[in-house]
Design the sequence.
């Protein structure tokens, strides 16, 4: 319907006069409301940007601050300068697209080359601090320090009165500093100007936050930290690990073992024992090499890929076949009450997909589900827990979910085929089957092919159905990653990255990149075969 | 025996006009061959399509029911589960419902607005990079945000170290992520529709002295209202049932959406509180299903219009 190139809205090269006329018309018609809305909108954007810049500069994230400043300037320049109409209309959508679609795709490309994941999610400096913190023990017979918990702008500090009476303040990763003008009460500092002293109730409310704070005694983390069990007194803790900054090694003071940085993103002893947490490093193609060479990952990756294609193809095929059959059955004007059947049959399409999968999961439950207990009289068929039955169940439920859409679409396409073609074929002596096979089906396929392709693309990443119905299971126990028989690629990425105790963002992103390449391949092929590109004018 | 007669009468299946000619009181055999069997198919498919929905509905009317008791359909008739649903502090259903409507509503409005702006530019203006831009949109839509879920998670956790208000565990953050997918499919769908509005209308308005903003907001947007409704509805349905990104961004139960909350509800106590889950499912489905059934014509029209080009 839109194949014909639409008429050009105006001559491509406008003359200077007509440009000026447009500008005058714009200025005259806009009125003060448009100008006010524009200024208000830009004001809000600029205010947010300036606040963001302020925070970013304070936290010394120069690169991000530079980007925010550049984008803000660009937006202001676009909207305050004359002309640049296309940019004015495209900018808002493009900014979101650039950050949350294009940037994140590139960023996953970067993550695929790191060891980002549980135990490797920060810098080396953070890892050293975390290790020193986690191996802390209270120094025996050390004095106790009187403590008042202070708060300023949501940040908690410790006001400490040392046994000799001197007062100092410090916070998480902020070593103690002496203060002079504290408010004293019985020789104990209880307050400081500019800070709020927390009462008993506040301390209870922020218990976990306060218990996690450790204040370094001096700049050298090996000197120990102050921590508080109760919010009113603090004790000196030292770490059983000792960090040697010059050599870059960790030494366990109890056993004497030395752990050194051997380039794998964690301190490792000579015996190969790792201290976790480690830190994030670039690992090159390691994740891809692991995916393709380690048998415990390669096996599942291949079977999941094959199943993903099979699932997407069979889903499209079964739903289209059933939808087309129903469209033919109900495309008969002699039949009464077609409307009512139609409404009932599109109910599965209208019901939210994730709920359908959960409901079917209940109905297919092996012990208590409706299908086994009622329809099959108490049989215990493992619909969702046997490898092949689970695959069949997934396809069956997807047929239930998807046939109404295909039914609606093919009905529309069938009705759009001119009646004369059928009549002409009948006159030529064609049988009904021949008419369908050689006249209607080819015409139908031409018009629904793009929909079939997009349905394939949708099912290729049909995470909700798989995850809600079978959770990807039954689990493949021999696999080195958390995958099951019905997992498709996208649910495997999700499970490797977010399910279970061991999250591996690097490997998950490598899988995502592999999907990306597969999808790109498919779309190049399908674009070549459709003419959609040629129609762009 | 039917096959033999059918061969002599090929028109029976394919010629719909026969209905007009055919006598209303046909003999049963002929009636069955022509339309009766279609009713059998229709009844079978209706049972197939509607049964799971009836099953949920019946389970929701059976208070205190488990997966086992749900098997005796419509044995009980009480709305107690619907009341219990709202009195579970661990599973704040009302908050989930509100969040879902809020996140879905704002994201779909934003999607419609951003998409319409872009489609207007592509349809009505000629500028350098227009063709490349359209092609890029077409390509980008092949790669759903889902693929970059790890990067989205890490990006948001990075943002939340500096701006907790729009980072992890923030609904604004989630909406922003959804708006990232606003261009793409939708723009393409709208672009096709915008092209069907004759540009002579714009020109007439221009001659009358209307500027581009006035033409867009007061003329074009009204003319393309059907496609705006379709895109808005599709994007609303899409975001309300979106699970992957919502499940990693929203952490507090109070902030979660129905998809995330109900999934966790079911996975935690699968068979024990089946009737309460069923009640939640019925309530969650009602708004979407009503919208769908009322607007089904437009939706189907919109779906085919966007792709069959």
Sequence:
């Amino acid at each position: 319907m839109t194949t014909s190139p639409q008429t050009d809205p105006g001559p491509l090269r406008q003359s200077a006069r007509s440009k000026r006329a447009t500008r005058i018309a714009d200025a005259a018609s806009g009125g003060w409301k448009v100008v006010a809305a524009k200024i208000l909108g830009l004001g809000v954007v600029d205010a947010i940007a300036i606040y963001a810049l302020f925070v970013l500069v304070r936290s010394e994230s120069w690169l991000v601050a530079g980007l925010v400043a550049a984008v803000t300037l660009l937006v202001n320049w676009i909207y305050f300068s004359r002309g640049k109409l296309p940019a004015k209309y495209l900018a808002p959508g493009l900014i979101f697209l650039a950050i949350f679609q294009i940037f994140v795709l590139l960023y996953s490309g970067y993550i695929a080359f790191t060891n980002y994941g549980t135990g490797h999610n920060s810098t080396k400096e953070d890892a050293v601090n975390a290790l020193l913190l986690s191996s802390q023990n209270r120094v025996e017979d050390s004095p106790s320090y009187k403590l008042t918990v202070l708060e300023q702008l949501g940040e908690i500090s410790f006001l400490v009165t040392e046994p000799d009476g001197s007062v100092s303040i410090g916070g998480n990763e902020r070593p103690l500093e002496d203060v002079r003008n504290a408010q004293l009460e019985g020789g104990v500092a209880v307050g400081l100007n500019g800070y709020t002293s927390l009462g008993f109730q506040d301390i209870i409310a922020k218990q976990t936050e306060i218990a996690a704070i450790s204040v370094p005694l001096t700049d050298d983390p090996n000197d120990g930290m102050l921590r508080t069990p109760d919010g009113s007194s603090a004790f000196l803790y030292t770490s059983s690990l000792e960090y040697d900054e010059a050599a870059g090694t960790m030494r366990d003071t109890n056993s004497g073992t030395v752990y050194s940085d051997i380039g794998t993103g964690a301190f490792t002893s000579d015996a190969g024992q790792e201290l976790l947490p480690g830190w994030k490093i670039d690992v090159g193609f390691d994740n891809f090499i692991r995916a393709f060479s380690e048998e415990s990952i390669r096996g599942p990756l291949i079977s999941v890929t094959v199943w993903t294609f099979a699932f997407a193809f069979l889903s499209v095929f079964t739903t289209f076949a059933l939808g087309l059959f129903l469209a033919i059955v109900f495309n008969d004007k002699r039949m009464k009450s077609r409307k009512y059947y139609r409404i009932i049959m599109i109910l599965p399409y209208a019901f939210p997909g994730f709920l359908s999968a959960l409901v079917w999961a209940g109905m297919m439950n092996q012990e208590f589900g409706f299908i086994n207990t009622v329809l099959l009289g108490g049989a215990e068929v493992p619909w969702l827990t046997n490898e092949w039955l689970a695959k069949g169940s997934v396809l069956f439920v997807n047929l239930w979910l998807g046939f109404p859409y295909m039914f609606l679409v093919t009905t529309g396409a069938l009705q759009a085929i001119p009646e004369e073609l059928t009549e002409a074929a009948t006159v030529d002596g064609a049988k009904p089957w021949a008419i369908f096979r050689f006249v209607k089906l080819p015409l139908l396929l031409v018009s629904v092919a793009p929909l079939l392709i997009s349905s394939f693309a949708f099912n290729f990443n049909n995470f909700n159905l798989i995850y809600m119905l079978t959770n990807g299971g039954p689990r493949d126990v021999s696999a080195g990653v958390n995958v099951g028989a019905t997992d498709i690629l996208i649910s495997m990425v999700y499970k490797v990255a977010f399910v279970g105790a061991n999250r591996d963002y690097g490997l998950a992103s490598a899988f995502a990149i592999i999907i990306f390449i597969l999808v790109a391949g498919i779309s190049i092929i399908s674009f070549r075969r459709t003419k959609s590109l040629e129609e762009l004018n | 025996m039917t096959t033999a007669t059918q061969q002599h009468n090929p028109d029976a299946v394919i010629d719909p006009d026969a209905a007009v000619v055919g006598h209303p009181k046909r003999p049963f055999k002929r009636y069955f061959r022509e339309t009766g069997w279609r009713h059998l198919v229709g009844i079978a498919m209706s049972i197939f399509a509607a049964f799971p929905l009836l099953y949920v509905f019946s389970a929701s009317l059976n208070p205190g029911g488990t997966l086992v008791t749900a098997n005796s359909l419509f044995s009980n008739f009480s709305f107690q589960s619907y009341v219990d649903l709202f009195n579970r502090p661990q599973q704040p259903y009302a908050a989930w419902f509100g969040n879902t409507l809020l996140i879905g509503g704002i994201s779909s409005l934003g999607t419609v607005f951003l998409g319409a702006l872009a489609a207007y530019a592509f349809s009505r203006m000629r500028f350098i990079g227009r063709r490349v831009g359209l092609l890029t949109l077409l390509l980008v839509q092949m790669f759903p945000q889902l693929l970059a879920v790890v990067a989205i998670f890490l990006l948001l956790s990075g943002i939340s170290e500096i701006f907790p208000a729009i980072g992890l565990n923030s609904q604004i953050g989630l909406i922003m992520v959804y708006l990232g997918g606003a261009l793409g499919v939708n723009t393409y769908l709208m672009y096709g529709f915008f092209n069907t509005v004759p540009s002579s209308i714009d020109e007439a308005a221009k001659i009358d002295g209307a500027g581009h903003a006035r033409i867009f907001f007061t003329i074009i947007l009204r003319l393309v209202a059907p496609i705006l409704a379709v895109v808005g509805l599709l994007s609303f349905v899409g975001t309300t049932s979106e699970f992957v990104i919502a499940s990693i961004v929203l952490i507090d139960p109070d902030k979660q959406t129905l998809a995330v909350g109900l999934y966790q509800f079911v996975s935690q106590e699968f068979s024990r509180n089946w009737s309460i889950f069923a009640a939640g499912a019925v309530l969650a489905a009602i708004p979407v299903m009503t919208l769908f059934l009322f607007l089904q014509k437009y939706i189907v029209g919109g779906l085919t219009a966007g792709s069959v080009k």
Q: What stands out?
A: Chain A has a mean pLDDT of 83. Chain A is about 55% helix and 10% strand. Residues 147 and 160 of chain A are 5 Å apart (CA to CA). The domain at 124-275 of chain A is CATH 2.40.430.10 (Periplasmic binding protein-like II).
